Amino acid sequence: MTVKNLIPDVRPAPLCWPAWQSLQARANAGVPHLRHLLTDPNRHTLSATAEGTGIRLDYSRQAIDDWVLTQLLALAEQAGVARQRTAMFHGEAINTTEQRAVLHVALRGHAGATGHDAPWGATVQQQVHTELDRVCHFASAVRQGQVRGCTGQAFTDVVNIGIGGSDLGPRMATDALAHLCTPPGAAGLRVHYVSNPDAWALHSVLAGLNPLTTLVVVASKTFTTQETMTNAASARRWLADGGVTGEAQSQHLVAITAAPQRSAAAGYPAAHTFTFWDWVGGRYSVWSALGLPLALAIGPEAFHDFLAGAQAMDHHFVSAPPALNLPMLLALLGVWNRNFLNCPTQLVSTYPSRLARFAPFVQQMDMESNGKRVQKNGQACPTATGPIVWGGLGIDGQHAYFQLLHQGTHRVPVEFIGVLSDDTPLPLAAEHHRVVNLNLRAQAQALAVGRTEADTVKALLAEGLDEASAQAMAAQRSFEGNVPSSLIWLDALTPRTLGALIALYEHKVFTQAAIWGINAYDQWGVELGKTMAKAMEHGAAVCR
Ligand code: F6P
User: Fold this and answer.
1) What distance in angstroms lies between residue 163's CA and the mean position of ligand 1's atoms?
2) Given 152, 385, 495, 520, which is the most exposed site by the fewest CB atoms within 10 A?
């Protein structure tokens, strides 16, 4: 008798929830085409703003109607999302396989200015503030030349060595806020990032720098990641070869880690060691000491604004009603597209060029969190879970893979991200901005409504084709449409709106995991590759 027979035949959530079953029936019956749904004069009401964050969500081009939306909101209710959200904010061990709290929300402080303790408690609050003060004080001292290299020269360059969550967040944010960083050629502090252990990645950064004025930051939660340790050893050799040796080297070294005993054993000075806690997941750590390179790049004041933006989104997430709650709405629309319209991927398409690294950042956050097939109860999840998240700059994508979106055989939901105002100091910047946002809006509309064969024939005739040619070309030149998309609009690209945008995605991922019943905060899936590499390193035989 196998154990399996002992398991009562109870369909595990979410299949047994009434809302899930209603949505499944509706999806099977079919939802009207978006070109029909968009004729509704009230369609524009499918939008919501997160007060105080500078972010608005327009989801009018998602393949839903009021009934579907109502059922999705009921699904969140039946999944107990609110209860699970409270558990997270109160520091319960919701990361069940590691028995850890998940408190990246604590890193950006508590919105409630009423003086009562944050839900995570005064102890955590104090720990966070103490380390944040150290980080900001150090960043300020380096930027102002009070902390200097071993020859007394101020630092001109910072090289952050880390990978995954120890790289993607700070690197993305530094690029996104480039307008606040030292411009090329100007005096000041430049921050560089190296993640890949391929020698060229480090060489191409170090080659142009002066060891005597370079600060090497080694960022690693575990301080064991082979890629990072490889790069760190090489960077320390570069310092030594450049005359920064022995004790003097400690003036050029910084460690950021949750394992300070390891960094100390490796010779990193305590005064330059900044720590965070095991309840901070790597992909959720940009708010912690791991944000030091960002604070060095944009300054402590702007870093505080970045934290405040995330805090404002946290406040929105815990206080806005579900029907107006941007993270909830984004999550539920993702569940509708993933589980009911059976779209296996999610495209994140950013239109501001400074957000070029946002999609790779969200890729780790979403896919390393929700790329799980087993629920918290140990059962195989009966539904699909995290989508394949991909993307990049939208305008460049239009000239690369949008063909597939428009006429391919995949239905790919899109999250467009744009900014409503741009202050790039270029004489014709307003025209650039107009062209960029015109394209964003046009793509969302074209993907939604498409063009029927009948309308295509009319268009081809208008181009001067004869009837026979127009009919012959109609199939190749028509567009299915009905591709769902959301438009996420930032008032402008600032530390505050960027912080809010990241928190929006963090809470989207949380909400989807809460519905699927999976643990978004461990990452056992990355372990096998690491252990395989170690075994092979020590000569284990492998099948060719
Ligand atoms: O990809 C696996 C992972 O553990 C990520 O979760 C993490 O952000 C990255 O590797 C780097 O880990 P560490 O910060 O410990 O070097």
Assistant:
1) 6
2) 152
